Amino acid sequence: MATEILEAQTDSPPVAPAPVIDAGAPVLLFDSGVGGLTVLEEVRRLLPDAPILYAADTAGLPYGTKTEAQVAARVAGLLGRMAERFRPRLICIACNTASTIALGMVRDVLETPIVGTVPAIKPAAALTQSGVIGLLGTQATIRQGYVDRLEREFAADQRLLRYGAPGLVGAAEAKLRGERVDPAAIAEAVNALRAMPEGARIDTVVLACTHFPLLEDELAEAFGPGVGFVHGAQGIARQVARLLEGQPFARTAPDRALFTGDPSFADAYRGALTRFGLEAIERF
Fold first, then answer.
1. Separation between Cα atoms, residue 196 and residue 115, nearest integer Å
2. Which one, of 258, 254, 248, lies nearest residue 277 by Cα?
């Protein structure tokens, strides 16, 4: 019987063999700056043995004030070059702005599996008791149709108040450098949300930029009691782990951080990068 089945299937196209995964191939995490370290932290919890390559496009920072065309072209171009040079097993775009604008384009042009980062509106909608959700992101993120679709799908019967807070990106980067966080940047973002219609009823805030979880303590103090925060880092890490399930890992060299900008920029973050397990710093 087995012989007959095999003969009957001789005209079928051959099944492509499963790709051989290099155990030393890295997981590439990409962000405009160092906000993606919040995602890296969660990935390490689930995949402690996975080799990591962290790429920060500091030459293009900030993304939130750029046009969609600028962000899409820059992200697709950089990730194409990085994929060709470093052969990552998976790319995680650990940046809400880059993901909401360029994720589809990058998936179209690269064969590497891609995991994106999108605002955590779905879990926020499940958590809110007041029905009023605040969303803090970059100016580019909050205006994207992708966010509109998430709101329609998961929070249609609730109120989503959005605010673009570019000052929080700089505040988060300063905190990682060991510098004082400007309280004015925190207050400006919080007050802007609270001043919107029904803003006083916000009980859940979506941190829709991977930089912003670095400021959760400062934001919590400014919002006051009764406000919870959600972001996507844990969910992103779970998706990365799911896609890499069963793959071999071997760290053949120290985990690295790449910076596209002035090397002195990277030097300012050396202490933070070391704390996140990134022992080598290079310019790309």
1. 33
2. 254
CA distance 253 to 257: 12
Cis bond leading into 62, ω under 30°? yes
- Composition of the chain by helix, strand, coil, percent to 5: 45, 15, 40
What does CATH list as the number for 121-231? 3.40.50.1860
Q: State whether CATH 3.40.50.1220 applies to domain 27-117+234-283.
A: no
Annotated catalytic sites, by residue?
A: 95, 209
Strand partners, 282: 258
Low-confidence ranges of the chain (pLDDT < 50): 1-17
DSSP string covering 9-60: TTTSPPPPPPPPPPTTPPEEEEESSSTTHHHHHHHHHH-TTS-EEEEE-TTT
What's the sign of the alpha-carbon dihedral 259, 62, 169, 79?
negative
Give tens-digit pLDDT for 19-72. Answer: 668 999 999 999 999 999 999 999 999 999 999 999 999 999 888 889 999 999
